[in-house]
Design brief:
The chain is α+β, with helices and mostly antiparallel strands. The protein has 14 helices and 21 strands. It is 35% helix and 20% strand.
Length: 494
């Protein structure tokens, strides 16, 4: 039998330990896996909201979800509430799950548009169990007819949980800081990392989880970065933790300001807060003051500020190095995709890992899928900024009038003209997501699919009414979010 090859993960944090947990659990018999991480290097630790696919990944790793939520002071997330995005005073939800019922020819929004034109349809969200439960502060999971959900988490506790999971599956942890990345002059590949202690850490495949610094994929291998700043103009963020405020909401809040937007993420023991903004339109001090003056509770830590450039690597995999997480790119957190994109990269890597030596065909396929995914998620995020009626500040005027990718321009116009949303294979955000955000941003279809008119007005009214009644009945039977946490996954007092 051949000697086991070694995968070296440079950097810890959520991305590094998520990769280690997966590779240790699923490939531990085939590869040696080690993580080089120094506890002296702080983690950004602001990616505290997730989306539902992470739950499937956790099941693959054999993680007990209730134990996880309890350990990371987690709460449940049914979606995101957007305030002030299309107009000041507007409020809408992007919830998880499926809204209404579709048919073979068209999706539910066509029935809803017809109902609105005839004056017999409620708000679009009235037909979504997740949305109505979120509005009511309710939660129901794990049992039959449970809701589709994700969770809010303490990023530091989550990384520590993944670290324990990794070490229990044979992952080696090398504590310390590496000072040099060593490159083979013959192949141009990374051969090892040199620690400050002088120790050499050799490997066959290296994962760059060093965050924005991207010390391997950029610092050593000079992989170019494709900026998205024209489309996503925010380039700065400030984050601060505050005391717990009342019973936690089962959703993330995204509140638009004149130069960016603010997040609120409720945990069992505290609230995570932050402000994403464009430094061309506001000073760092004013942004900091705006965040601190819009907290619901007293700060319990010093604010952390950081700069970033939205974009992605031209290649996520160069030579024998794969960038995971922030080292690969950053799309800002408005749709809570950061942890998901790290998870997706890890899954993609594991599916393409060869039995023997690395192959260029596998690397090329990885990079093709990586680029497509990042660009598609980017387009969905651009939608939030561009589809606005706000012209009350220079920032929002720029967003409203900026040029956008042709694919996104086509999709917005097609929805406005026909109500249709044709998806590409393996898109992360499905029809319900696009429909809720488009309608929430005041992009409404002018017409609907003709098959809807196969129904009489009374039949359509009965159809919509029964869907709404079913949602109301389901939500009425649910406990509150806090009651559900207390019953199933209440964390031990800190």
């Amino acid at each position: 039998m051949q000697d086991k090859k070694t995968i070296v993960i440079a950097g810890g944090g959520t991305s590094g330990w998520l990769a280690a947990a997966a590779l240790g659990k699923l490939f531990g018999k085939v590869y040696n896996v080690c993580v080089v991480e120094s506890e002296a290097i702080g983690r950004i630790g602001v990616g505290e909201a997730t989306i539902p696919p992470l739950r499937t990944f956790h099941r693959l790793l054999g993680i007990d979800e209730l134990d996880l939520i309890k350990s990371i002071q987690g709460t449940y997330k049914l979606g995101i509430e957007f305030t002030n995005w299309a107009r000041k005073g507007d409020n809408y939800f992007h919830s998880f799950g499926v809204t209404g019922k579709d048919c073979w020819a068209c999706d539910f929004q066509h029935f809803w548009v017809a109902g609105r034109k005839k004056g017999i349809a409620d708000d679009f969200g009235a037909y979504s169990p997740e949305l109505m439960a979120a509005r009511s502060g309710k939660m129901w999971a794990y049992q039959e007819h449970g809701l589709n959900f994700a969770y809010h988490l303490d990023a530091g506790l989550y990384a520590e949980y993944l670290k324990r999971h990794s070490l229990s599956h044979g992952v080696r942890w090398i504590e310390g800081i590496f000072k040099r990345v060593n490159i083979s002059p013959e192949t141009g590949e990374i051969t090892s990392l040199t620690m400050e202690s002088g120790e050499e850490v050799p490997g066959d495949l290296f994962l760059d989880c060093t965050g924005f610094s991207a010390r391997l994929i950029d610092g050593a291998l000079n992989t170019p970065y494709l900026p998205y700043g024209h489309y996503l103009p925010c380039d700065s963020a400030v984050a601060v933790q505050s005391e717990k405020y009342g019973e936690p909401r089962p959703y993330t809040q995204a509140i638009a300001h004149d130069f960016g937007w603010q997040w609120r993420i409720p945990l069992q023991h505290r609230t995570g807060n932050g402000l994403v903004y464009c430094s061309r339109y506001v000073s760092d001090d004013e942004a900091m003051n705006t965040l601190l003056s819009n907290l619901e509770s007293k700060p319990i830590a010093e604010p952390k500020a950081f700069k970033y450039k939205t974009g992605r690597r031209l290649r996520g995999w160069t030579k024998n190095c794969v960038a995971i997480g922030l080292a690969a790119g950053f799309l800002e957190p408005v749709e809570s995709t950061s942890i998901h994109l790290a998870m997706s990269a890890i899954l993609r890597l594991m599916k393409l890992l060869p039995q023997g030596d690395l192959t260029q065909t596998a690397i090329d396929e990885y990079n093709k899928q990586f680029s497509e995914e990042m660009d598609r998620v980017r387009n969905f995020i651009i939608l939030h900024y561009h589809a606005t009626e706000r012209e009350d500040s220079p920032f929002w005027r720029y967003c409203k009038n900026m040029e956008i990718p042709d694919a996104l321009k086509h999709r917005i116009q097609l929805f406005r003209d026909t109500g249709a949303i044709p998806l590409q294979e393996k898109e992360l955000f499905q029809v319900d997501s696009w429909t809720q955000v488009l309608i929430g941003q005041r992009v409404t279809p002018n017409t609907y699919h003709p098959i809807v008119d196969q129904m009489s007005e009374s039949e359509l009214s009965q159809f919509l009414g029964s869907l709404k009644a079913s949602v109301q009945e389901k939500v009425a039977q649910m406990p509150s979010h806090q009651q559900f946490i207390d019953r199933h996954c209440k964390a031990d007092s800190m």
